[in-house]
Recover the amino acids of this structure.
């Protein structure tokens, strides 16, 4: 795209970072036991949901605090197909994806009429409605709406025995591959005509429209794609947790976790949601460990840490790093490109 | 046949009549200025053509198309783009991305093909080349990768013109492009408007308070006051029209 030595160096840095990150992510389950491996798998599927929410909220400026519903939808699609219909996990993934995308588009249409806080409220309603629907329509053994997949859990295949002999390892790697593919697709998506349209709509709707951007189509597409990511994340969650659940609190909490991951990592950056997801999951885990005998204090500690982080890095971890990097580079060749135009 | 025909357009906001049965036409290839004191309804007319506002009555036709029947996002495809009185750039996008966003109608890739990189590299390089050419044309090429926020006002005004040109319009509407510019910048802008008109085969509808510039580059001038047309003609005719002089003395603009 761009040329010149600066661009080549940027490409080199990007390549090296990618290799390092992929290397570490592949190595994690080799180093750690089942508990940690599952925790990291959890961070991965939360990263997927956060990527989707970032497309909608970060790039397109539509706030949703209801993505826990799309997540739950994906989890139940996978759960029910595996348990009641004997489907293999991977076959359930596209179903979860399409289902969530369709519902996402259906929510996106009424969302065209509202913005900001009102949109947030509508999506909050979605998060509240979803558990009620599940409780009405899903009846598992025992009469609850909890779908347990322990009995039908996938076993690691023979060919993977050298690196994923344990089930938790296998589930982690499946999650990693799906998350990796979705990450690559997302990077392509936001860099290009559609990505520019997303940001244009967020930053100036009227101007975007006079340039020929179809506001309704862009916004509904953003909703659908974003829901698709959340649905896939839910599907992966069913695999990793071996259950699908839709408690009122859980769905709401999940929605907030996605949003926190996006904001902590850095909105409208490609890497932000991934970084944010790992920070949130690990932070939650550590704060829970820190004060074992006072379990009520750990959410408070978690919250305070988040507030501190946002205070230090208002544009998130990735946004903050990028700003720092720009400043250093700007100081190195000060004033070369940022002078005002010749008059 | 005129390129743009505005017929008896009326716009009301509550009790305020912003445009009162306004009619005028622009011939293809002309630079037509729309002038009048603040609040005369000039921006309101732009917003009607852009389909941001819906007139209470009247018709607007462009090259035979009924604009009021077209969806707002179709206007750029029909060949009309504009700049805004108060800048309406996308501040976090780079200058080149702003211009490439302006070329939205020249691209085809939706989210799916973009995600799968089907034809993406080719489309991106085509739009980027177009953007670079426009930036070079407006002496902005050295700022291509700079975020649009933080640039000087006069520069941003030119970025917005580059963005409006990116859709390859036939009618370019400029809402007070000289406002806030220095003297030398105004002269340069006047020359730029003339030369891009010739180079890109444009018709220009210009709203401007800077009278020297208006009189210098316009083929025709339409004068509005309180939403009504009070005069039209060549710059020479309009300059000497007693009603125009009165409107401007009554409420000094510029
Ligand atoms: N969105 C709006 N709501 C209410 N009144 C408006 C709106 N837009 C314009 N007006 C009114 O219409 C009149 C014409 O405004 P405008 O077209 O901006 O004038 P100009 O561009 O000639 O200075 C003014 O009285 C203005 O207050
Ligand atoms: Mg105006």
């Amino acid at each position: 795209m761009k040329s010149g030595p600066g661009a080549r160096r940027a490409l080199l840095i990007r390549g090296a970072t990618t290799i390092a990150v992929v290397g570490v992510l592949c190595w994690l389950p080799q180093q750690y036991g089942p508990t940690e491996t599952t925790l990291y798998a959890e961070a991965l599927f939360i990263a997927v949901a956060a990527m989707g929410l970032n497309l909608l909220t970060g790039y397109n400026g539509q706030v949703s605090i209801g993505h826990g519903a799309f997540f739950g939808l994906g989890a139940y699609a996978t759960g029910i197909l595996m348990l009641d219909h004997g489907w293999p996990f991977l076959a359930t993934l596209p179903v979860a994806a399409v289902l969530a995308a369709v519902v996402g588009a259906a929510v996106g249409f009424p969302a065209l009429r509202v913005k900001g806080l009102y949109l947030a409220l509508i999506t909050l309603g979605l998060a509240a409605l979803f558990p009620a629907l599940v409780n009405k329509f899903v009846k598992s053994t025992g009469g609850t709406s909890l779908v347990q997949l322990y009995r039908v859990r996938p076993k690691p295949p023979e060919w993977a025995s050298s690196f994923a002999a344990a089930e938790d390892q296998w589930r982690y790697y499946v999650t990693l591959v799906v998350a990796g593919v979705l990450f690559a697709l997302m990077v392509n998506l936001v860099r290009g005509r559609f990505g520019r349209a997303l940001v244009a709509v967020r930053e100036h709707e009227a101007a975007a429209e006079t340039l020929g951007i179809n506001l309704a189509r862009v916004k509904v597409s953003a909703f659908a794609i974003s829901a698709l990511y959340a649905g896939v994340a839910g599907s992966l969650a069913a695999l990793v947790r071996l259950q699908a659940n839709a408690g009122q609190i859980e769905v709401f909490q999940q929605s907030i976790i996605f949003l926190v991951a996006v904001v902590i990592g850095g909105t409208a950056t490609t890497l932000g949601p991934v970084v944010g997801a790992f920070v949130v999951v690990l932070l939650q885990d550590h704060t829970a460990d820190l004060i074992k005998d006072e379990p009520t204090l750990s959410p408070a500690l978690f919250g305070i840490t988040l507030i501190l982080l946002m205070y230090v890095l208002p544009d998130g971890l990735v946004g903050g790093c990028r700003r720092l990097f720009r400043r250093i580079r700007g100081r190195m060749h000060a004033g070369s490109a940022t002078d005002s135009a010749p008059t | 046949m005129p390129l743009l025909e505005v017929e008896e357009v009326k716009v009301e906001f509550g009790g305020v009549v912003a445009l009162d049965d306004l009619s005028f036409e622009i011939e293809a290839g002309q630079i037509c200025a729309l002038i009048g004191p603040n609040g005369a309804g000039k921006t309101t007319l732009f917003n009607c053509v852009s389909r941001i506002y819906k007139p209470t009555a009247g018709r607007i036709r462009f090259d035979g198309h009924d604009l009021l029947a077209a969806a707002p996002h179709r206007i750029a495809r029909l060949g009309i783009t504009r700049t805004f009185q108060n800048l309406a750039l996308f501040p976090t996008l780079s200058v080149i991305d702003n211009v490439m966003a302006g070329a939205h109608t020249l691209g085809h890739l939706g989210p799916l093909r973009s995600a799968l990189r089907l034809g993406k590299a080719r489309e991106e390089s085509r739009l980027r080349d177009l953007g670079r050419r426009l930036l070079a044309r407006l002496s902005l090429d050295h700022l291509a990768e700079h975020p649009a926020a933080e640039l000087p006002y006069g520069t941003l005004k030119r970025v917005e013109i580059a963005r409006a040109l990116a859709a390859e319009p036939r009618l370019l509407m400029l809402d007070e492009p000289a406002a806030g510019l220095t003297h030398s910048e105004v002269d340069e802008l006047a020359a730029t408007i003339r030369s891009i008109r010739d180079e890109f085969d444009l018709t220009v509808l210009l709203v401007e308070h800077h009278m020297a510039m208006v009189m210098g580059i316009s083929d025709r001038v339409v004068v509005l006051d309180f939403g009504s047309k009070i005069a039209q003609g060549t710059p020479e005719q309009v300059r000497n029209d007693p009603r125009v002089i009165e409107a401007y003395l009554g409420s000094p603009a510029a």
Chain A has 13 helices and two strands. The longest helix of chain A spans residues 5-31. Chain A has one domain: 33-329.
